[in-house]
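Q: My labmate handed me this sequence with no annotations at all. I'd like to see what the chain might look like in three dimensions before we decide whether it's worth expressing. Could you predict it?
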Amino acid sequence: MFNNLSEKLDKALHTLKGHGKINEVNVAETLKEVRRALLDADVNFKIAKQFTNTVKDKAMGQDVLTTLNPGQLMVKIVKDELTELMGGDTVGINLGGSPTVILMSGLQGSGKTTFSGKLANYLKTKKTKQVLLVGCDVYRPAAINQLQVVGEQIGVEVYAEVGNQNPVEISQNAIKHAKANGKNVVIIDTAGRLAVDEEMMTEISNIHKAVTPNETLFVVDSMTGQDAVNTAKAFNDVLNFDGVVLTKLDGDTRGGAALSIKSVVDKPIKFIGTGEKMDAIDVFHPNRMADRILGMGDVVSLVERAQEQYDEAEARKLQKKIAKNQFGFDDFLNQIQQIKKMGSMKDLVGMIPGAGKALKGMDIDDDAFKGIEAIIYSMTPDERSKPSLINASRKKRIAKGSGTSVQEVNQLMKQFDQMSKMMKMMQGGGGKRMMQMMRGMR
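A: Here is what I predict for the chain of 442 residues:
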């Protein structure tokens, strides 16, 4: 996410992060490099220039050159301005109305239908809403089918009218259906085209007038950069939408859309899509994104994701197993599944401060656990619950069944043993013993 921009900003600020002599000349040179980094990220030229001018004015106004840590203060000013550029405050979705009507807009290929499903899943699981998805793309038969597949996947009803080519009628009928069937959120997926045209704009404007949505969201492919910003302006002129959704942020995103869109249309970014799975959706926090762009990670979001997967009852059961030395491979497998539910490995690593830079160039694969899972699934239930049963002949069988080598099975057994000992040590007063051991290793 924004790897190229992060790298260039890091290089630009590198001089000022050190303890060398800092003066107006190298501050100006640094900000020149910051502007280049923003332009390379496809940020509008005027916005990039205004951004660096504001940073310079604030830096001179706060006597950066005479402070004890001028580099740190400069980074803070850049971070604060990046936060403001992306909207400043986090803006939530409006769930008023009975039912709440959410109108999705955007070009074809922006990820609108997929995001409609993600939003439905988010509102269903995290806001406990009864959601109805509405298929109003009457021009592409595959669009309705796609929405139905998504609806089935997340367990949400999809309303569509076969043969009806009037999206305004379909929208109005869907809201009546929602009221009659206890649905308190209606998400209307509209038709998109490859480019902005009068016919599409007239149609979505008519739907907007007919259903008076509580929330109108503009969905944009973040990989399209400045083009996305121009499209957003065209849609906003017609719809006066409430917020922006950036999709495909897990791809090779330069960042121009995220950094420019608020300045151009004066509408907040409300959500981001961070992967293909239905739970790959995040509320957009400008301050956290600024931290990530500057390589500071996003620990708060990481903890929030971990908390979402935390099951107190399961945690108590696990504690008892560890205390009784009964922690087995089934428990280990369960922990892996919890981590996988938190999101893509690449995204999670990006939330750890400094990790993105440290692991630069490394391929962080979402299938990183595949080999481990294959080995564990090749064990018998007895072997998974009692790892001590696994002898040399069993290891050969497990290796053959999982398509791995005995060495890989041994490596997993060793890692599992070390982890079990550490977890046991952390129980009760073990943390103290662990600290003593670590001191002895110095």
